[in-house]
Amino acid sequence: MKIVVDGMGGDNAPAEIVKGAVEASAQTLHEIILVGDETKIISELTKYKYNKEQITVVHASEVITNEDAPVKAVRTKTDSSMVKGINLVKSGDADLFISAGNTGAIMAAGLFILGRIQGIDRPAIASTYPILGKGVSLLVDSGANAECKPNNLLEFAAMGSIYMEKVLNIKKPAVGLVNIGTEETKGTTVLKATYELLTKSSLNFIGNVEARDIPKGACDVVVCDGFVGNVILKLTEGLAWNILKLIKNKFTDGMLSKVGALLLAGKLKELKSEFDYSEYGGAPILGVKGAVVKMHGSSNANAVKNTILKGIPYAETNVVQMIQNSVLELEEIIISE
Amino acid sequence: MKIVVDGMGGDNAPAEIVKGAVEASAQTLHEIILVGDETKIISELTKYKYNKEQITVVHASEVITNEDAPVKAVRTKTDSSMVKGINLVKSGDADLFISAGNTGAIMAAGLFILGRIQGIDRPAIASTYPILGKGVSLLVDSGANAECKPNNLLEFAAMGSIYMEKVLNIKKPAVGLVNIGTEETKGTTVLKATYELLTKSSLNFIGNVEARDIPKGACDVVVCDGFVGNVILKLTEGLAWNILKLIKNKFTDGMLSKVGALLLAGKLKELKSEFDYSEYGGAPILGVKGAVVKMHGSSNANAVKNTILKGIPYAETNVVQMIQNSVLELEEIIISE
Questions:
Q1: CA–CA distance from B271 to each of A296, B234, B245, B248 (Å)?
Q2: What is the mean pLDDT of residues A29-42?
Q3: Phi and psi dihedrals of B93, rounded to 5?
Q4: What's in the keyword line of the UniProt record (chains A, B) (predicted)?
Q5: Which chain A residue lies closest to B67 (C-alpha atoms)?
Q6: B104 lies within 8 A of chain A by CB
Q7: Beta partners for A137?
Q8: Buried residues in A55-85 as b, exposed as e (16+ CB within 10 A)
């Protein structure tokens, strides 16, 4: 299998991207293609020992930045690392595309170059959400579609279930719909209609889920629009960061506490790693015709390494084809409304 | 001043409600009226020493439960503690109504009995949000209106600013609009229009705020629809609970850690209290013609006590009149669109 990595995307490109790719190459036999400014990437590569047959570089003269308007950038910067990289998946020369670049542009490139899976109205970003001490849930959509219709949310639920079952090996993943109460009459018009659609599906729909139960692992697939998903993801990040900072302050305040803090330093580190997105790999863009994974913009080498390694089973299990196969059932449910 | 407390609302009524009222009476000279089943409330009161002239009981034969449909309950259970209690504010016999009962019914009772402030389209629930180590922000709306129009959000911002300035003494409170990015072009159609309205207002609008910055105290008044507000509030509750549990588990695991945990027990307790809603008092229903405060359904005596004591400046500062005075400016902004 060949994995294409956008060498120029993200806050720490190309240094951390290249480092992460080298680290990943030591743990897999698959080939890694780094796309981007050849001179810069090779200059980074020379810092490391690695199997030269396993990592190759494809030159791209342009870079899509976070300031670029996504659609325009994908249309005009045709020699960018992102567009060239995703085209390698399109042409069949690679099996997986990974980027820490402009999220909107990754979505746009996925849509325009690979195309939507027929029958999927809106592709979505599926982010792993840490359930402390118990693995992860999948949050779909976590930011691609701020406004959604019931059929979009049904599709997110179906695509997320396939991903959890096939890639993360969760049998019959429990699907929950984020709502302001558990009763089926709760929430907006869109959510009430979505509840009905989900009930009719063959998915393991457990009903509405309140936000307070998400961190406890109330369900495997957390379904919501991209606005709410973005709020959930970012609030979790901000709050965890804040609590850990406060713990550190409290525990280093006063003499006795200092002794305690020393004793507990290792434990605090463990706790921090539970919230560290770089441990969990990236977020697949579900619903496009190819395996595309988006990384956090500030990804370090560890995040890049984990995203590459955790992306392999995603490309291998052919989730894209399975989503394609599920579309017929979804359309029957939507039409019967 | 007279404070009416719904003696029958919430998971721990009437025992904890009565206990909290007694505790509050020791710290204020204001009169407290407990409304509800006279026999039950008096039986609880006899457990305590208190100033009999300061706490009186008004009998109500019915109770609105969490299972009741809010509007129907308010219309039909006219001898309920909630309806009778809020009527005491309506008639001018009391200045503040507090309840831990059915949130929808409190909203409905506020709307039907007290009425909306003229010019305010939708009243909202304003919850205090703990900024660790730095006080609180105000989250408006935190659950009353799942779907909102731009003018609703503008009104929430204005009402929240008045509350923060007059009751919590924050000068020129900074108003932030919850969005998925800080740029003014981000988010839904409703949010883009709201951004424009807020820019035109005399409020101290600092722009869009991402969810990750809310726990850091990015602004004093956090404006969002009731769906997003409910997600923010409940996710914070669930996540904080989960992290503290994990800390406790980690710190009591292993011999060395046990020693550390003992040393740090006090610090952990401090941390827990930062997240304890019972310390912060209740959530005012802004936009109705009278001071109404909703408490958490599982409020204990401490929460009841704090809600009563923190509700006093709310009723005293006459926020209702100030909201009424601000309506003209809001209408000018909305009409000019």
A1: 30, 18, 12, 12
A2: 98
A3: -80, -10
A4: Acyltransferase, Transferase
A5: A183
A6: no
A7: A129
A8: bebbbbebbbeeebebeebbeebeebbbbbb
Rounded Cα–Cα distance for residues B283 and B280 (Å): 9
B145: its two tokens: 């209106």
Task: Mark yes or no for CB contact A211/B188 under 8 Å.
Answer: no
What whole-number distance in Å separates Cα of residue A114 and Cα of residue B328?
53
Question: Would you tell me the crossing angle of helices B226-251 and A255-274 to the nearest 10 degrees?
Answer: 120
- Contact criterion met (CB < 8 Å) for A240 and B239: yes
Q: Give contacts of B253 with chain A, Cβ < 8 Å.
A: 267
The fold for domain A121-283 equals: Isopropylmalate Dehydrogenase (3.40.718)
Residues of chain B neighbouring A141 (CB-CB closer than 8 A):
none
For residue A128, give the nearest of A302, A1, A286 by alpha carbon.
A286
Burial A281-310 (b: 16+ CB within 10 A, else e): bbbbbbbbbbbbbbbbbebbbebbbbbbbb
> What does the pLDDT average to over B122-146?
92
State the Cα–Cα distance between residues A121 and A107, nearest whole angstrom: 14
- Spatial distance between the Cα atoms of A115 and A124, rounded to a whole number of angstroms: 13
**What are A79's two structure tokens?**
């020699």
A2-120+287-317 with A121-283: one CATH topology? yes
Task: Please tell me the distance in Å from B270's CA to the nearest CA on chain A.
Answer: 9
Angle between helices A189-200 and A319-335 (to 10 degrees): 110
Q: pLDDT-based confidence at B246, cuts 50/70/90?
A: confident
Cβ separation B210–A242 shorter than 8 A:
no
Give the span between the Cα atoms of B304 and A146, in whole angstroms. 39
**Sequence ranges of the domains in chain A:** 2-120+287-317, 121-283
Q: How many CB pairs under 8 A join A and B?
A: 150
pLDDT per position as a tens digit, A254-266: 655 666 666 666 7
Chain A, nearest residue to B215 by Cα: A239
Architecture label for domain A2-120+287-317 = 3-Layer(aba) Sandwich (3.40)
Per the CB < 8 Å rule, is B227 touching A180? Answer: yes
Max mean pLDDT among A244-253, B38-47, B130-139 falls in B38-47
CATH of B124-238, one of 2.30.40.10, 3.40.630.30, 3.40.718.10, 3.40.50.150: 3.40.718.10
Q: Which residue has the higher pLDDT, A275 or B99?
A: B99
pLDDT band for position A280 (50/70/90)?
confident
Look at strands B124-130 and B283-286 and give their pairing: antiparallel
pLDDT digits (tens, 9 = 90+) for A283-319: 999 999 999 999 999 899 999 999 999 999 999 998 9
Query: How many residues in total does chain B contain?
Result: 337
- DSSP alpha helix (H) spans, A135-203: 150-166, 189-200
pLDDT of residue A264: 65
* CB–CB contact B238 A188 (8 Å): no
Q: Do B231 and A240 touch (CB under 8 A)?
A: no
Q: Is B2 helix (H, G, I), strand (E, B) or coil?
A: strand
Choose the weakest-confidence range: A46-55, B161-170, B202-211, B278-287.
B278-287
Phi, psi dihedral angles at B313 (to 5 degrees): -60, -30
pLDDT at residue B263 above 90?
Answer: no
What is the model's pLDDT at position A273?
72
Chain B touched by A115 (CB under 8 Å): no
